[in-house]
Every structure is written in C-alpha cells, then in structure tokens.
Amino acid sequence: MYKYHAEEAMYRKYTDESYKLRAAFIFVIQHIEYVIKLVGVDYVGIGSDFDGIYQPPKQLDDVTTYPLITKALVEKGYSEKDIDKILGGNLLRVFKANETN
C-alpha cells in the first residue's frame, strides 16, 4: 500500500519539476518560420492537437492563447493571407482537394 504512495509522490515531483522546463513561446514561432523556409507557407499549418498535453509551450496553455501566435506572426511581418493559411487555410484547402463526392 505505501509503495503506491511513494510512486505517486515521485511522479508528482517529477512532473512538477519537468513542467518548469516547458519550451519558450518564441521557439514555437521560430519553428513555424523554420518550416516555412523549408517547405513554403502553402504547406504549413498548426492545430490544437497540443492542447491538453502536460507540458505545453510557455504562454500556450490552451486554445484561448492562440491569438498570441497570430500576434507574433503579424509582428514578424507575415501577411494576413499567409497567416490565414498557417492558421487553418492550408488545412481546409487540402481537405477540400481530397474530399469525395
């Protein structure tokens, strides 16, 4: 019985400490820019699949913080058209191109 309490305490200590090691928000933006440079803006998209993970990047704790990504892309000089592509336009284009009648 006590064994499980020890494991739980160890797990809690590990997860609390590792939560402090979350990636910085700027790394998310830098990664988006890296992929854009690698393959082009028409092939980049972000989704909410990281919402709910234990260690989301700093400042991106849930989907309500996604406007920070938009703001950062605007500040980096991306056009509204390119930001629309990144935030879902590319996904919709691919879905539409592959939907069956």
Automatic annotation (TrEMBL):
Family matches, as PROSITE patterns: RENAL_DIPEPTIDASE_2
InterPro entries per the UniProt record, alphabetical: Metal_Hydrolase, Pept_M19
Record-level GO BP terms: proteolysis
Pfam families found in the cross-reference section: Peptidase_M19
GO MF term (any one): metallodipeptidase activity
SUPFAM superfamilies recorded: Metallo-dependent hydrolases
Protein name: Membrane dipeptidase
